[in-house]
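so the lab meeting is tmrw and i was supposed to have these ready like two days ago... anyway. pasting both below. for each one the top line is the aa sequence and the line under it is the structure tokens. i havent really looked at them closely yet so no promises
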Amino acid sequence: MLDVPRSNCRERQLRRDAQRNRDSIMLAARDVFAAQGVDASLEAVARRAGVAIGTVYRHFPTRIDLIESIFLDKLRSWVEAGEQALAMTDAWDGFTFYLERLCSLQAHDRGFNDVASMHLPKAHRLEEARSSAYDLSCRIVARAQQQGTLRDDVTAEDIAIFIWANTRIIQATRSVAPRAWQRHLGLMLDAFRAERARPLPEPPMCPAEVCQAMLALGDSGFPGS
């Protein structure tokens, strides 16, 4: 029988323990951030995971590290939704699919709403995915306008404002009418239609203004460490 040194067995056990702790922390963080947002107490995450707060910081030295690990897949799902929308023959169907999918990603997850609404310069992987989503939004909007179904004055920046509005609707109604966002989406889709267009009182925000607003949301609602 092969004699495995005790030190090797202990190292493997330590790795298994470390991986188990990491998995527990990520599972707990998903639940806590979904309920309370990304500014939730990391002590609450540690308690839910059944580990010490030092264990959380050992695996995720900053809050940004934990947030990226939790939400990168969801942001990639946002990008995938945009790619699927562009693959649809009918541009309006693609536009509505994109907004419906984005709203469903927002539903029941306050943490994702935070991440979708804020600009976090230190979260490089999240910002890369967000940049891809923005480019896709521009193409989805332009394509629907070229087909004559989306009003000409809509911009990708209007999609950002729609995300902010939907965030507040979901937060306000989650315990009393958790599907209220679907009604708001239906109303907004009617407002986006080209045949219903009326002159708007204000021009659209420019990309720099949206970025500045998202930075402000991050500064006001996100503890950076």
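ok protien two:
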Amino acid sequence: MKKNNLTRIILSIISILMIVIGFMKSEGNVEILILGILGIISLVVLDTQATSMVGLSEDNPKVKTFKFLNIFTIAIIILCLVFASLSPNKQLSITEENKTLVIGLMSVFMMFFGNLSPKIPFNRYLGLRLPWTVRDEQTWKIAHRLVGYLSFPIAIIMFIMSFFFSGETVGSIGILSWIIIPGLYSFVFYYKKVKGLSQ
């Protein structure tokens, strides 16, 4: 239990640092590098503590999914850091020149993550972590099943729309839709469930 509390403290400190650094403004690309490194550290901590975080045995397929998504996310962060360092303005941004590639990669990530999302075990660290999804396992399952269902249509629409509209607009609307729709639906489900239990 103490080990689990220490892990939570470490992850909380890293999260606060990431938020503070994310609001800093400067000319260089140092913030992106620091955020990437902090993200990787937190994911490595999650990977090493996966079994205690989700309360399942090491052999459980859900723990393997949890760990696999951690490694996959670390690879995405590294890819983003390399992309930012190779871009002419040394920033992680969507431009007219790279928008098809970036939106394409975002679409692939969404489809891949969405395919695995129903298999993510109930936890407070990886997945659609909203106040109501982390309080109730049934709400968690419904939210992540919906994330899975929406991933392919949203990713395909995003990729097609990137040929007609600004990459940042398409990317922002796509990601927000992917999060907001399951978030609202699961909130309504949770609210009705809690209301039904209190009567």
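from a quick look at the 2nd one: The mean pLDDT is 77. The two ends are 35 Å apart (CA to CA). will dig more after coffe
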